[in-house]
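User: Show me an example of a complex going from sequences to structure tokens.

Assistant: Sure. Here are the input components:
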Amino acid sequence: MNEAESHIPPTRGSHSPGAPSGGARTEGARSGGVSGRVVAAGAEDRAGPAVGAESQAMPENLRLVGGEMLLWSDEPVRADGRDDSGGAVLRELVGRAVPAPGRVLLVGPHPEGFVEWLAGRARSVAVALRSFPDARRLAARHAGHDGVTVYCGRLEKLSATQPYDVVLALDGFERVHSAESPDHPWRDTLAEVVRLVAAGGTLILSARNELGVQAFAEAKPYERADGDWFPGGLDQTHPSGHEAIGGELASHGFGVERCYAGFPTARAPQALLAVEALDSAAALPDAITAVACARTHGGRPLLADPGQLARKMFRHGLAGRLAPVWVTVAGRHGDPPVAARTADGPQVMGGDVGGAGGSPAAEADVGGSPVAEGGVRGWPVAEGGAGGWPVAEADVGGWPVAEGDGVGGALPDALVAGGMCAGAWAVVHEVSRGPAGEWVRDVPAATATLVRDRVRREPRALAGPVPRGALLDDLLLTACAFDDVRQIRETLRHLVRWLESRAEGESLPGELVFATTDNLVSEGDDLALIDPSWSLAEPVPFDVALTRILWRFAVRLLSSGQHHPWPWTMEPDRLAVTLLAVCGRPFDRECLDRAKELEEELAVTLGAGTPGGGVEAPESYREVLAVRDRLRDAVLAYQARIDRLEARLTRRERELRKARNKLRNVKKSASRTTRPPRIAARLLRLLRGRRELRERMEIP
Amino acid sequence: MDESNHWYGHSRIFARYCGFGAENALRIQGFVQHGWNYLHGYAPNDAWCTPGYPRFVWSEVLARRGWSMGRRGHYVIGSPWAYLLAMEPAQAEVPERAGTIWYPFHGWEKHAVRGDHARLVDEIRGVEKGPVTVCLYWLEYRDPEIRKWYERAGFRVICHGDRGSRWDGRGSGFLSKQLGELRRHRRVASNRLSSAILYGASVGCDVAVYGDPMTLEEERPEYGGTERRLRMWPELHGTEIDSTAAREVAAYELGFAHLAGPEELRVLFGWADTRRGRCA
């Protein structure tokens, strides 16, 4: 190590920044862990660095309360502004629980679109963040808005503010405390948060389940990332179930109004199912749980298929216990705050229009006209400037919450969004028990139709009873596992017949293009679409549509890593051809290409992670073992090199020390003996001695 | 390992604590934080702290901040000052404490401090009632221009010396000298919250932080500036400060609760096989 060059020391008692201007400025994470949340100071400089920001460009609505994290960000900025964090379904819940919020506090990071949406309907919104760059960005975004205040720093320093009518902690408590704070167990954090709720106010709280279904699928051991300055998963006070959350809240004088289990992931729930509904004996139909069982491995190595695990979880009645996250709506006992729970129509509607943060933009004047082309990153541009969302045709979007049909106060049994699509296409709908015990989907009459390119979604088609019966995908996968080719053949031929009976000549109508095996249930002798809201503008040639349906299933089957009766080397194309043959249909190369093109087009339009990209096989255990062996060899080699360098360094230092001692001794003796006359005298004496010797020995 | 481990006699303090004798400056296998810091214990540009060797920091909050900034391998051992105090506890017969020792904010070899010393002198005079000792950093002490401002005001001007290095003993008595001075004074003051203030608070000095905080050339933004210090330690700024609060902060920041035993340090620093009295 060339210390002279690389080491630039700061000052004594270095309270002063001592670093050169030309030095490396990026402080990126250097561990192998999940990081990248550290904000490089250099990057920040452009937007006004931490120090500079305090003297320049500090938004007026930003309050630094102390302990803020200058170089940290909790929210990766998404260039396309998309909100895939399950915002729609949580937004719906908040809208139902507090139709007209007064003063609202958001604890921890929330999607920016969510803050915007809330700012449109609440009297005032305060946001408590630990990250300074996030806080400044959010504050700047709402700079002109009187009602939005951003507090940045340690949560406990907020206690001086007046309590709020509504407090939302929808991100949980994991990202609430700054690195400046000592460790805060969950229970202590809750105590801090409930102090901020006014008497009669509402708290909506997310709590992750440490033993959620995802924990069973996860193959990688917990890895501490930059965000875990305290190790995770060791908090004894973290609630172990929804009852525990209720108990904790009760001890603070709160009553739980409803607790929901969120699926399929804690970070982006697409379905919120009331825990009572899950605990009751009547099982939820597959058509609902399919959303909760979405396969989400996000590229992480897995021990087991999370979809299969989730399905088992529902079958065993454990969904309420093993949900990845619980979202609890609780009220603080006492007089209700003035503004809360009173319908306030215009304010609510005002909040929804132009919903740039994820709700489909509602445009009164768009009518049925096609949407303007040229969207950013493949997303259509709404004329209201809510860039990036499919445009609604009808007048209003979302729920007419305030237009009192009694919906406002009652919290639903289940809220479901998503399915095969990404955020913007999501239609949040309520699912409840009908009088005869059947499950019924309810979509408000005013919900807008969504259109983009050739795809159209008519959410009103969702309304009505939820089809019962088993998912066609599951039936086929099971048959594959049993090598039951006869069952596979019957099921597939049944599907083909069902489609043929609905075909118009040689083509399949646009709404049946979406009759894929993951969107169909088998009800006795009939098949039923789970989500009949989708359609394509034009009919598709029958063979192309069928080939696409089978190709999708082939990808699904291969991605599951599950056993099937065909050779293991088969890739999706060949498997699709085989499945076509099983159905007794001829194969046409061009047909397969067109089917894949259609799949690609739909995947892009829906913005969903459909299997358009091919098989996403989870990383296998075998592969991991091989990597481990390679790494072990590499580590041994590096260790050997380090040992050698250490040994050499030690030896050199010893030599150096010796040399220095020698030098010092030489210097000392030299300084004692270097007086010129003495040297001369010694020389003379020496010469004389030699002469005498020579004379005595008679040497010539 | 690294030169900064030996500054201000830190490695010698540790050597003495571990029973090697204070004349030895042993190589520490790791990077000892060498000054109080409210970033992560090191300079923002700390690429010289090779990963794989521990970062010996003074307090746990630094480890957390460092972790959040992608640094790993922290080991909280407390400050060398804490070890010095452990070896040199206060004497039973305490000399009469008098006056104030004042540490103006200092620059370093590469960046000088910009500020008005004349105004600072006026401010000190306005606040301090008793005799004043001004302790300058060796760079500023060497500069007669700067010294004269304080000397003319009638202050006693001292310097704790060079920070030293492994190969010359000049810095070896730095902290001992500082300790001696601090124990003689009733108050310690500075224009910025700094190591010296915390050292003083930890040995019973009253504390004051006031006056123009001055600016350092090309001050790095990562620290967050004076405003951040004010937000973090509002209780430690002013001419009269609650000394109990100051002592508590000092104990925390200097890591008194994290002192490791000599055996542990010997293993941590790679000295377990070193013969006493010999250098590795």
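The lines above are the inputs; the final block is the predicted structure for all two components together. The beta strands of chain B are 31-32, 55-57, 74-76, 100-103, 113-114, 132-135, 156-158, 187-190, 206-209, 215-216.
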